[in-house]
Amino acid sequence: GVIDLSYGNTGYSNGMTGNGVLMDLLDEPVPGVGTYEDFNTIDWVREKSKDRDRHREITSKSEQSTWALLHSISDAFSGWLLMLLIGLLSGALAGCIDISAHWLTDLKEGVCLSGFWFNHEHCCWGSNQTTFQERDKCPQWQSWAELLGGSSEGAAAYIVNYLMFMLCALLFSFLAVILVRAFAPYACGSGIPEIKTILSGFIIRGYLGKWTLIIKTITLVLAVSSGLSLGKEGPLVHVACCCANILCHLFTKYRQNEAKRREVLSAAAAVGVSVAFGAPIGGVLFSLEEVSYYFPLKTLWRSFFAALVAAFTLRSINPFGDSRLVLFYVEFHTPWHMVELVPFTLLGIFGGLWGALFIRANIAWCRRRKTTRLGHYPVLEVLVVTGITALLSFPNSYTRMSGSELISELFNDCSLLDSSQLCDYNSSENSNTLPDRPAGPGVYTALWQLALALFFKMLVTVVTFGMKVPSGLFIPSMAVGAIVGRLLGVAMEQMALNHHDWLIVKGWCSSGADCITPGLYAMVGAAACLGGVTRMTISLVVIMFELTGGLEYIVPLMAAIMTSKWVADALGREGIYEAHIRLNGYPFLETKEEYGHKTLAQDVMRPRQSDPLLVVLTQEGMSVGEIEGVIADTDYSGFPVVVSQESQRLVGFVLRRDLVISLDNARKRQDGVVSASLVFFLEHVPPQPFSGPPVVKLRGILDLSPFTVTDHTPMAIAVDIFRKLGLRQCLVTHNGRLLGIITKKDILKHMAQMSNRDPDSILFN
Q: 641 with 619: CB under 8 angstroms?
């Protein structure tokens, strides 16, 4: 009897003996065929052709009945519906994260008596005893010292506040790291390197699961509130991708196709940035430039729609209470002058230097964590870093406030009503206008404190990024740049003030005009540092001007970001995310790198000249037992099928997982399949003798169009084929005979050897 496994078990029991009873005809494929193991790479070509077949089937059916037509319409609509759901869910989660983080951050310093769920700002809004000068002091808000000791001034009160600040910080970070360790180890870090890897076709099961989502949302709030030097922006991308992955399970189209799901995840990355900064267009460009691997136009439109919905949802939750979407809105709109491009470029150079330096230091530290005993005590490490951070950050008001508060303070331009120390200028007699302002003592104190805060932030961020808590990198990098920018801005302002007669100042800084805006320098510095660390360009400019509302400052931002990218690229080729991908050994074929070596396919393929021959299956004549023996003896993820061992002419390629599942299925479902049963990969099985056991037909799982290159193909072309088509393996032939195989892993190992790195650091099978 013939057993045909191309469609489950369409088989005849006891085939030719005359009664010919037809067994249950099942028309669906064997469950599990066509799926992937954990830590494997998907085959984009196969997934896309699977989706094309599905689509073709639906469209051809849609002409036959109204029901099928409705099905085809709903299928076309499901992508947009999914985007709507992702936008709503991510926006809602981001709003909750913002509100709770704000509240917990203020809890470190005191409590609101009129309702403990109010944060400091909301508590004093409702109060009618608030004056404008002291808008953050009101009787309803009590610091811990007032609550516990009764007095708000003096050394004792300072110590009580100090201790409570440290205790809260330690408690929050302890909770965060314990939750991550116990429930979702994948929730730590920023998540962007892993998401880049997943989008390039790798599978990490559970990385975007529901536990990761729940734990990441809770621990992100705790980690941000603990005062550690980290932001919530990177992890919000991970949170949005988790939402997308979970919602994908509602639609069969996305549940069953890995390539389609990755298109949705690209859009989700855009949603993450959109809700993190309130920058929907910046988010779409971020996904396009930084995270995505395969980004067709359709995904661009869908990301645009999803980012719009998410920004809308966040805006209706209104987490900042000022009905603005953006994080750091700036009010100043003074024009800038051509001469100022010099300091802007200097900021760009600083940003590039700091970016390259930070990547080196952070990667060295993370490598130490991986290789020494430091990695065995994640909880202790987080507690020590939090303790040191809290201990050093409390005395300085610029480090005590959260990162985003610090940045908005630095971006702010001084108006008459500002109570900030940075705005303590000596006002002249007619104090209703603000012409040239000589700096008062407050400004100098603030500059000293900012300089200390700068060193502190630089050192602490290197150690913090990569710990076992959710940690983003955007806010700390921007804080470093904003501090440097503000310092330079104040210096420029005072120089212009004290030297009116200098040639460079003379033309545009007439006496009595307010000509230099220190807040603008802070903005440019922040963008330059973030650009140096992540190597974003276009998306960063758009995020920055959406973030601040400063449309007239696009050119200064572009100049600084471009300079910073050039300087950083000169010192080190890769951004922080690529560096972390390489440190963790993820199989990621970088699309930006050129392959410059003069090797051929035969130098990279396995088996090498000295190795034993390639393990192949023949299209006829092998028994079930022999194939199972081959599977047991090797750990390859697939086998080429040839006409015969002598001719080695190629027929197709069969994946190990499909083979194992199909053979198991044949043994379970069919009578008489034993180890001696023959296996055929042919279309028409030749007539068999009556006496023998039934044969197994596996034509259905054979890939008849494997990609092949000849042994003299230059590797540069082969690498290009792998990148652009998203291949997983490629067969090598010589004069039409099968010689060997190249997998994505071989290419990555080869590239690692070529650049003198350890080729065994690459993780996947």
A: yes
DSSP labels for 589-613? --SSS------BHHHHSBS-SSSPP
What are the backbone angles phi and psi of residue 652, rounded to the nearest 5°?
A: -175, -165
CATH class of 82-98+168-317: mainly alpha
Give the span between the Cα atoms of 66 and 134, in whole angstroms.
69
**Cβ atoms of residues 655 and 32 within 8 Å:** no
- Summarize pLDDT for 405-447 with one digit per residue, the tens: 899 889 988 765 566 777 777 765 444 444 456 777 778 899 9
Helix (H) or strand (E) holding 742: strand 737-743
CB atoms within 10 A of CB 333: 12
Q: Rounded CA gap, 596 and 750, in Å?
A: 12
Start-end ranges of CATH 3.10.580.20 in the chain?
A: 601-761
Residue 617 CB contacts under 8 Å (≥ 6 apart), including other chains: 627, 630, 639, 640, 641, 642, 654, 681
| CB contact at 8 A, 382 and 469 | yes
Question: Token pair of 244, please?
Answer: 């997308």
CA distance 518 to 423: 11
Asked if residues 471 and 228 have their Cβ atoms less than 8 Å apart, the reply is yes
Neighbouring CB atoms inside 10 A of 53's CB total 10
- Does domain 338-375+386-412+437-576 fall under CATH 1.20.1250.10? My reply is no
- The end-to-end CA distance of the chain, in Å, is 38
Q: Which CATH number fits domain 601-761: 3.40.50.300, 3.30.1330.60, 3.10.580.20, 3.10.580.10?
A: 3.10.580.20
pTM of this structure: 0.90
Measured CA to CA, the distance from residue 765 to residue 760 in angstroms comes to 11
| Residues 6 or more apart in contact with residue 63 via CB below 8 angstroms | 69
If one counts every other C-beta atom within 10 angstroms of the C-beta of residue 22, the result is 9
* 603 closest CA partner among 491, 437, 479, 715: 715
- List pLDDT tens digits, range 14-55: 333 333 333 333 334 677 788 888 888 898 999 999 999 999
What is the rounded CA–CA span in Å between residue 521 and residue 532? 16
